[in-house]
Write a structure and sequence with these properties.
The chain is an alpha/beta fold. It has 18 helices and eight strands.
Length: 399
């Protein structure tokens, strides 16, 4: 195992998500599609990358991994999908296009050139207005050809599996570029049609896709067939094992149980990224006393973690809540942040909403969609999704 703070990990570097990994592999091989949810840096990309790696060794499986965070158009998305296909699958698609006789040869040739450009390291995504228009004009036969390919695999006892990382970012990018929801509807309907044809998917994103679609008044039916997988921070035992493993990798010979406790107590939540970041700084120090750990966190780790995550929370709050609704939502979050358990009852939420004239159901629904809170049935109310949200509200002066 290595100390890697940032990029997705796989193989020997992937630890402590075995339950989610087994769930993903078995579900996808059986045809059940997944929506992998969780805050950024919690390990969604690593789960998809490792799932792709392991599925590549499964007989009859053709896994395709797409990182679509930087894409902005339908033509870029379709080109990226084609570029991920093995050559024999791509040739079969071209044969389907030829047989259908529903697309002009110049478009098929243009697609092939885009793919060759991407394979040669040229990016392949400078499609241009004409190419984008052609892709949209002939989207139905392009979409249908992938459905046929998926069904052919099923008939042969095989399956194509698509792992899409950061799909919500791609959808937002398209909306910012055009201001229209038409392309978003087209992409989501296409993915739904492909799933219905037997192409299993795992879709991951740091942005709440449900909240995004609700804001744009797009029907949730396009994703209601996906099984939700919510990634959580590591448990204390898992976090302890990860810290001790990385301490050995870092060559910290003076590492003790006291060092582990000191490190974990500095973290609001046990995200693997947080632990990797801390161990990366400690490796450079070559010492691991509680005093050194506290200094590293104060000067290096906490500023990096909090700056990144607090900005994310601020942006989500600003984007998902307007006017008086935002004020009431913040009042609820602040009240929850004042409590050690981060919980609040339905009656307490109602009292806060009554004071501002807001509908409690609307407030809690928006907070849930923004992934700030989750239902707590035992307490007849809600709880904060992560401890980091408590420190965020405290830092903003609200708790």
């Amino acid at each position: 195992m290595r100390i890697i703070a940032g990029p997705p990990v796989k193989g020997d570097d992937f630890m402590f998500r075995n339950r989610e990994l087994v769930l993903a592999k078995r579900s996808l091989l059986d045809g059940t599609s997944l929506l992998v949810k969780g805050w950024r840096r919690i390990g969604k990309s690593s789960l998809l990358v490792e799932t792709h790696r392991q599925l590549s060794g499964e007989r009859g499986a053709t896994p395709l991994y797409l990182d679509v965070q930087e894409l902005t158009t339908i033509s870029e998305f379709f080109t990226a999908f084609l570029n991920a296909l093995p050559q024999n699958k791509l040739q079969r698609l071209r044969a389907l296009w030829d047989g259908a006789r529903r697309m002009p040869g110049k478009l098929m040739d243009a697609i092939q050139r885009r793919i060759r450009s991407a394979n040669a390291g040229g990016g392949g995504f400078e499609a241009g207005v004409e190419f984008e228009k052609d892709i949209k004009d002939y989207w139905e036969p392009l979409k249908a050809s992938v459905e046929t390919l998926a069904r052919e695999h099923l008939d042969a006892g095989a399956r194509i599996i698509l792992l899409i990382d950061e799909l919500p970012f791609f959808l937002e990018n398209m909306f910012r570029k055009t201001g229209s929801v038409d392309d978003i509807r087209l992409v989501l309907a296409t993915l739904r049609a492909w799933r219905n044809a037997g192409l299993a998917m795992a879709i991951a994103g740091s942005v709440s896709i449900e909240a995004f679609l609700e804001d744009l008044q797009i029907e949730g039916l396009v994703i209601n067939d996906l099984t939700r997988v919510d990634l959580q921070p590591l448990g204390r035992d898992e976090a302890t094992a990860l810290v001790e493993t990385l301490a050995k990798v870092a060559g910290l010979d003076d590492w003790t149980d006291t060092s582990t406790t000191a490190l974990l107590d500095e973290l609001p939540d046990h995200f693997p990224f947080f632990i990797q970041t801390a161990m990366n700084f400690l490796r450079a120090e070559a010492r691991s006393t509680p005093e050194v750990i506290a200094e590293i966190f104060e000067n290096q780790v906490h500023p990096q973690i909090f700056a990144s995550f607090y900005q994310q929370f601020d942006e989500r709050l600003e984007r998902r809540f307007d006017g008086d609704l935002r004020g009431t939502a913040e009042a609820v979050l602040n009240e929850m942040a004042r409590r050690a358990n981060g919980k609040i009852t339905n009656a307490e939420i109602k009292a806060l909403c009554d004071a501002t004239g807001q509908d409690p159901l609307k407030v809690t629904r928006r907070l849930e969609l923004a992934e700030f809170i989750r239902t707590d049935l035992k307490a007849s109310g809600y709880r904060l999704v992560q401890n980091l949200l408590r420190t965020w509200r405290q830092a903003r002066g609200g708790a």
